[in-house]
Amino acid sequence: MISTYFSTDQLASPQALLTAVLVGLAFGFVLERAGFGSSRRLAGIFYFRDMTVLKVMFTAVITAMLGLSFVVGMGWISLDSVYAMPTVYGAQIVGGLLFGVGFVMSGWCPGTAAVGAASGKIDGLVFLGGAVLGSIAFNETFPWLGWLKNWGYQEETLYAFGMSRTVFGALFAMIAVAAFYFAEWAESLHGRQTYLRSPMLKGIGLTMVVLAVAMTLLPASAPNSPALAAETTLVGLEREQGLLSSIEAGHDHVDPDHLADRLMASEKDLVVVDIRPAAEYEAFHIRGAVNVSLADLATRLAEHKNQGTIVLYSTGMTHPAQARDALARLGYRNVYMLTDGLKGFVEQCLKPVSLRNEPLPPEAEAKVQAWRNYFTGQEAGPASASLAATVSPLVSRDWLQEHLGSPNLKIIDVRKQPAFSTSHIPGSVRIDPESLRSTVDGIPSVVLPAEVIAAHLGLMGIAADDTVVIVADEKVRDATLVGMALSRVGHRNWGILGGGFDVWASEARPTGSALAGVPRTAYEIEPGADQFTVTAADIAPLVNSPKVVIVDTRPEDYFAGEASDEARAGHIPGAVNRPYSTDLGEDGWLRSVAELAQEYAKIIPSKDAHVIVHCRTGHQASQTYFVLKHLLGYHNVQWYDGSWTDWAARPELPVATGA
Amino acid sequence: MSSVTPTKETPASDGNKPLPLWNPYFAGFLLGLTLLASLLTLGAGLGASGGIARFGAEVESWIAPSHVAASEYFGAWGANPLAYYLVAMFVGVVFGGLISAVFARRIDVRVEKGAAVSSKYRLSLALGGGVLAGYAARIAGGCTSGQALTGGAMLLTGSLVFMGCVFAGGYAAAYFVRRQWND
Predict the structure, then answer these.
(1) What are the phi and psi torsion angles at A429 (to 5°)?
(2) Which value does ipTM take for this structure?
(3) Which of A127, A209, A414, A568 is at a distance of 20 to 30 A from B28, taking alpha carbons?
(4) For residue A25, which residues of chain B lie inside 8 Å, CB to CB?
């Protein structure tokens, strides 16, 4: 098998860059020799005057397509080793249309303009300048128009409009040859000497079509085991044709609801195979499914060959389709794929009724409830109920969107009303972060004791092993304060949605206004989880000690004692001032981890250093705590929840003033 | 291999004629092989607009470095946006074109346009088209090289859709900008 710089993640290595230069040299050379250093020639295609663009482009596409099909079919390379651009219908349609207008206006496209400019065309150079400006304009308008880039994004990269790649390739070659004849004919109308009747064109056309049809005899994907490889050489044309006709008729799919019913009925001889990696299977799988790796499919399934029903599934559809094709070539007649994969199954059968866009009729609702009870119930074992991995402290929007509807994903929205009621991420529950704070032991505005927090979480339907994503607007500190409450009860798996709700909404991701009906839970506290909250009594002996870095996150004037809302003005002697707002960018969100790491390294000597953060009430400091502890990996960070309100009101404690 | 006679836009002084262009099918075949080589070594196809956008990020960060670092799109490319394989490829394309043009005696510094229009008119269309194409390529995640050629050869559904839309957009607008080629 060939491995590529992409598949080994070395595209940035010097060798890969050198290879890219060499590829570029050949690319530029060929473009120039084809005559693409001329905008008049390039624009000619749009007036049916000079069809060189069509001829060169289609010949190149068909040549590379045939070459790629051949090496993939021979099992020399896996398609996974080649970067495939994602399918984003809206972006590709809008981008394509605009690009076409730019192309005909200028007579250039980016690659050809580079060659044109290199051979002295001033209009080519001007086009390149324009394209640089256009890229900058895209960056500048990204906050408003960036969503276009993801408009119509498909979870899975799609090939050949869903047809078999090689069959589509054969059709494509025929279309290309027809286009060549059309191009020659169009040029002949302008009185040019053409290849319309030349034997060369006939030869090229025939070769392309014959080769493309021959490719349909090769396997559509690289076989995964030597056993498979050996047997695929026995491929027969009939078998392939039978396979193609059954694909066309849709006989190779099983719909999620049918599969769910058949599994619940404990149908005999039904084998459901999860072909995802073992770790993903462990995290969640359809109840009753077995986990088999692609390489072991042929051996593990041998006893079920043509007996009963084999249903393959993965997250999406590509891998099962490839596996199914490979098995069909080995003579399996009883292999089916789960329509839309595990995603489709979760979406159609397991997504709670309350989260669906359209209300369901009562009988369908009952059905979903029955499926949910069976497939997400106790019998499935605790493993199937949990999501794949621990979420990162800043949860990506893609991750959240992908996992929306997962049974143990809980979303806490901390935004104000009426923002929440107007629009929120489907399934969210709202809490005002202030309702997690009150006066405790006479100290105002501190986070409630663990048992009170647990009661709150229970009312919100959250359990200790849930994955929790906190959603804020521009006030990151509201999310981090809820994070402190979660940490106090020992909740392990939580994160904050990166960019917050506003960016989520601006990217046209799912939102709704329905309230999630959540059943209460009894939240189980992890005893002794809160080792990070400190009190004035803990800090008093450490004042001016070199062993601790006290970070005061209030604004400069409060730190200096020039402004005060509390009993006394000033700061804890020896503390350093790092206003929480310094960590935020222009957009109100946390700045890049790299920048923050650099700046904190100047204040705090090492990742193991003892750090105490505080502000006026503990709210702002919760953000700094999150940055240090969860984003930058400082191990020994503590949080003075009582903060300056508490310190200033204790006359026996020392106070310093000045910057 | 028969060849197309050089067209009139490449004027030739006596005794120093440019070499003829390649037969378009032969050129296409070699372009296809180049693309295939790229796919099998780099694991990624050809690309031009990606390199240009990286230059855009570099240029903008000369002017407003902290703004670019904080911006959501360019910011994701890190402190050195030029350290990227498509930038290397773009440099290759420029030099490949230059080498070919020098050996074919096709270096010719001028504005290519129809005789009926001014250079200013032609250059403003080239600039406007460049801005539009540069912007559109960022939306679509590629241009004629990355989406149409590469994605087309890989039979990616989205790239085939892109290719169709490029032609649709081009043919729809062709009438309005035809004057620039009038002689």
Answers:
(1) -120, 145
(2) 0.93
(3) A127
(4) 92-93, 95-96, 99
Distance from the Cα of A407 to chain B's closest Cα (Å) equals: 32
pLDDT at A404: 85
B139 touches chain A (CB under 8 A): yes
Closest Cα in chain B, distance from residue A223 (Å): 18
Query: In angstroms, what is the C-alpha Rg of chain A?
Result: 31
Q: DSSP string of B75-90?
A: GGG-S-TT-SHHHHHH
Pairing of the two strands A443-447 and A437-440: antiparallel
pLDDT computed for residue A10 by the predictor: 85
For the stretch B86-108, pLDDT in tens is 999 999 999 999 999 999 999 99
CA atoms of A114 and A119, how far apart (whole Å): 9
Quick check: is A615 catalytic? yes
Residue B12 has pLDDT above 90, yes or no: no
Q: Do A103 and B170 touch (CB under 8 A)?
A: yes
pLDDT per position as a tens digit, B104-151: 999 999 999 999 999 999 999 999 999 999 999 999 999 999 999 999
Rg (CA), chain B: 19
**Splitting chain A (659 residues) into consecutive groups of 10 residues, what average pLDDT does each group show?**
84 92 98 96 94 96 96 88 92 97 97 97 98 96 90 86 91 96 92 88 95 84 38 40 53 84 81 83 81 78 82 81 79 84 85 76 81 65 40 85 85 92 91 92 92 93 91 92 94 90 89 85 87 92 88 93 89 93 89 88 86 94 93 89 93 88
- Both structure tokens of A479: 């999310």
How far B19 CA lies from chain A's nearest CA (Å)?
A: 9
* Contacts with A71 from chain B: Cβ below 8 Å: 40
Give every CB contact of residue A588 below 8 A, 6+ residues apart in sequence. A474, A475, A476
How far apart CA B112 and CA B183 sit, in angstroms, is: 12
- The C-alpha atoms of residue A274 and residue A336 are separated, in whole angstroms, by 12
Interface check for B152 against chain A (CB to CB < 8 A): the answer is: yes
pLDDT for A203 equals 95
Tell me how far apart the alpha carbons of residues A557 and A658 are, in angstroms, rounded to a whole number. Answer: 9
Q: Which residue of B49, B123, B160 is in closest CB contact with A110? A: B49
Q: Tell me if residue A259 falls in helix, strand or coil.
A: helix
Cβ contacts of A400 within 8 Å, gap of 6 or more: A411, A425, A469, A497, A504
Torsion, Cα A278 A279 A281 A284, to 10 degrees, reads 170
For residues A433 and A413, give the distance between their C-alpha atoms in angstroms, rounded to a whole number: 9
pTM of model > 0.90: no
User: Do A631 and A607 meet the contact criterion of CB atoms below 8 Å apart?
Assistant: no
Is there a contact between A624 and A551 (Cβ–Cβ < 8 Å)? yes
Residue burial A284-317, b: 16+ Cβ < 10 Å; e: rest: bbbbbbebbebeebbeebeebbeeebbbbbbbbb
- Phi, psi dihedral angles at A442 (to 5 degrees): 85, -5
